[in-house]
Amino acid sequence: HLLRDWAGCSTITGHGLTKGAFGYPQILPRSPYFKVGDIAQTSISGLENTQYIDKVDDNQEKHQDGLVTVDKEVDRIYLAVGNHLVIHDATLRRRIRITSKGNRTAVVWNPWVKISAEMADLQDDDYLRFVCVETTNAATDRVSIQPGSEYRLVANYQIEQD
Questions:
Q1: Residue 118's domain is classified under what CATH number?
Q2: Which top-rank group of organisms is this from (predicted)?
Q3: Is the pLDDT score of 66 beyond 50?
Q4: Which of 23, 119, 147, 154 has the smallest C-beta neighbourhood within 10 Å, fewest atoms?
């Protein structure tokens, strides 16, 4: 039995107003930080068997075998992703479903101990209680908007309680 207790949507629209095509190197929404009960009891599905750029490890391209988990600083751009991701939060007994349109990449970020302590807007241990999962256009996922056309990057969020 699922109880849907919250849903939301984020949309960014770009319009082609010039005479020639206008290329956006990236279309970036506001980064969504999702509260979780305990990062050690949290995983992300929908990114299995994809390649990612590991920004923490000198932009090395790597392969994601199973579910994404966070046990250290994570700053990754997942490439050629689908449009359904799920944050599984075992501590708060819920799933956060993310469906997207207009993107082919996703970013997963958590600053971990050192960076969290250096950030003015985070408490030193906040990294234990959130994860950023952002559907976006990053790395080689570039957008070109033709004159008179528009481009939309849409992310829908839905929380389901166990």
A1: 2.70.98.10
A2: Bacteria
A3: yes
A4: 23
The answer to whether the Cα torsion of 64, 53, 85, 142 is positive or negative is negative
- Tell which residue, 3, 8, 20, has the closest CA to residue 100: 8
The two structure tokens encoding residue 54:
């590991």
Q: Quote the number of domains for the chain.
A: 1
| φ, ψ dihedrals at 11, nearest 5° | -130, 130
- Spatial CA neighbour of 155 closest among 132, 121, 128: 132
Give the start-end residues of each E strand in the chain: 3-15, 22-24, 33-35, 42-45, 50-54, 60-64, 74-79, 84-89, 94-101, 105-110, 130-136, 143-145, 150-161
